[in-house]
Automatic annotation (TrEMBL):
Organism: Streptomyces tirandamycinicus
Protein name in UniProt: Bifunctional salicylyl-CoA 5-hydroxylase/oxidoreductase
Lineage of producing organism: Bacteria, Bacillati, Actinomycetota, Actinomycetes, Kitasatosporales
SUPFAM superfamilies (UniProt xref): FAD/NAD(P)-binding domain (SSF51905), FMN-linked oxidoreductases (SSF51395)
Superkingdom of source: Bacteria
Annotated region (Disordered), positions in chain: 743-778
Domain NADH:flavin oxidoreductase/NADH oxidase N-terminal: 401-736
Domain FAD-binding: 2-337
Gene Ontology molecular function: FAD binding; FMN binding; NADP binding; NADPH dehydrogenase activity
Name of one Pfam family that matches: Oxidored_FMN
CDD domains: OYE_YqiM_FMN (cd02932)
Amino acid sequence: MRVAVIGGGPGGLYAAVLLKRLDPARDITVWERNAPDDTFGFGVVLSDETLGGIEHADPAVHRALQRAFVRWDDIDIVRGGHTLTSGGHGFAALGRRTLLRILHDRCEELGVRVHFRTPAPTAAELAGRHDLVIAADGVNSSTRTAHAGVFRPRVTTHRCRYIWLAADFAFDAFRFEIAETEHGVMQLHGYPFERPAPGPHPPAGHSGEPGETGASTVIVEMREEVWRAAGLDACDEQQSAERCAKIFAEALGGRPLRGNNSAWTAFRTVVNERWSHGSTVLLGDAAHTAHFSIGSGTKLAVEDALALAACVEEHPTLPEALTAYEAERRPVVESTQRAAAASLRWFEDLPTYLGQPPRQFAFNLLTRSRRVTHDNLRLRDPAFTRAVEDDFGCPPGTPPMFTPLRLRGLTLRNRVVVSPMDMYSATDGDPGDFHLVHLGARALGGAGLVMTEMVCVSAQGRITPGCTGLYTDAHTAAWRRVTDFVHGQAPGTAIGVQIGHSGRKGSTRLMWEGIDQPLPDGNWPLVAASPLPYRPGVNQTPHQLDRAGLTLVRDQFAAAARRAADSGFDLLELHCAHGYLLSGFLSPLTNHRTDAYGGSLANRLRYPLEVFDAVRAVWPDDRPMTVRISATDWAAGGTTADDAVEIARAFAAHGADAIDVSTGQVVPDERPEYGRSYQTPYADRIRNALRVPVIAVGAISSWDDVNSLLLAGRTDLCALARPHLYDPHWTLHAAAEQNYAGPAAPWPAPYRAGSRTPPTGRTDAPKPRLTLTGTPRP
């Protein structure tokens, strides 16, 4: 096999090393346009997991890395002149130049040809005379660009500017420092990558070699507008290094910073729909990027190389090998990119967190990517985590999720909400035995608040014929049966009602008969903000509400709220999300009106606020009222995260006690960024920008995530849907798994015998002694 590698970075070199080591007969050539010692950046961080893979794949490289690594456990978080330290994290780093030197030496030892200062021929040219072409040519990959029609890349440029610099001493911890300047907030990410030299050593110069006291990577980052306001956009490399050294003089002990072909840049996230084209395959930053704040760029490239070499070895043909490589690596990369995106957004929105108490701020920073959690951090640094819990108000032995929350006159005994879930099981709007059992079971399951599905304010406002309503007195009596059960059999559990109107998404089949598909017969007319069908050619075109229609629907909401109060609900939520009627007014994609209710965001808010005010006026003053919004439409031209903050601000000003922050479902061509707790950053932003209580939703499934989100100050309540379908007693089981048996999660008396995890079979039994110990006597 003849192999060509475009790009002599760590990923390309390591792929060459492994392919050659696995089969010395392979003819492998690497093209690197730079000199051997030319490199950007300074330190490289690798995880223990990645090092374990390297050790197994090539012990010689692993031994060389081990000799060069700097290891440390602590993270220092510096803000306002105060330092908080969290330990037990375990990092390992070395200089990028050292890493390249190790790989160059290994290539030479194995017989891999490396052409330095030599631009590679194009991938198409190389493919004509090589069996495999590995494009490891970085974030600006010319291979990816040349074959964009096949790889179909998406490159997203983000809102911060950053620069890689170095300091000629070794930090004794990973350091995050915040500088609040007259121009705005700036942050420093610093970590050691070279140990202090053991003996006399010349001072470091531009070459990037370590000084006598070691060396550290220093990345300085800030929002684009801050960078420009500070005049850093007009600075060259030396001027930038001097300015940054002055801003972070305390962290550096007054010592200078230096660059290495360093320039301010905006991070770009690279995603490709395909990673291979014929015999050419993308690797590392050419295929994907992940923000530097989780230290994954080189790690991902090295892991790509390992997987690619293994797949080439394991599969009989190259097409099978490249398919297997992508199948193996894509889920890992996508997971890492989701974590990196969460971390990136956290730093972009850093100014919104500066009002948090110091320890909560530090906990928030440490858990920003969602890869470090409350439970994980408690193992790493129990003293730090306990201090954060104390600040939050957790009594001893009480997890954060089991602390109470007061909203107006209602005190919720814990922070778990059974999220509204449409059941499509009503008859003419009446909740029946199913709803009694469904909601009653979840109330017995320990959640602090159980929410109904969207209860429709009129027959015309139903989504499907199976939707519940509050538009007749018979509905009131039926709901009273449910609330009486909850209050009588699950005392301490609150039950809330969500009221809404389907708008243009109504008159459709039951979910399991065809979601969003129109009824085969018996359709009713629809109304909406604008005459736009949900799916043109599929769903009917709604009538645009005129003045009389607006008044009628507003009054239907108020009448439903009166019935909800009479039904005994403890909390009311106004549904302004997911493309239903009120959401349709908020989104510019669904509101094309030219009157006072369309156009600007203030105008689009007008009708939902009128409805809110009408409902608040009849809803009992001591009972809280929340609003669910879609914080993004996940579609170009739709509601943005900035819009969501203003929407939340408006509802809070009108008296909303909390904002329930969901996303999407407004237009059918949305492109959500699914993943674990993927919607919580929107709740986080609203809470910390406005200091209003929020409810976070969206793929929150573990009690560890609930505790983490609460302690970090990203939410006040967590709403879980599917986990409560899987396990109606999710909250009680979460308490048992955390050894909590307090007033925030009491087991109903008839269920107390089941409050311990039952044995699962013979594997739980005590193991017999099968070996002798000690020395037998004669």
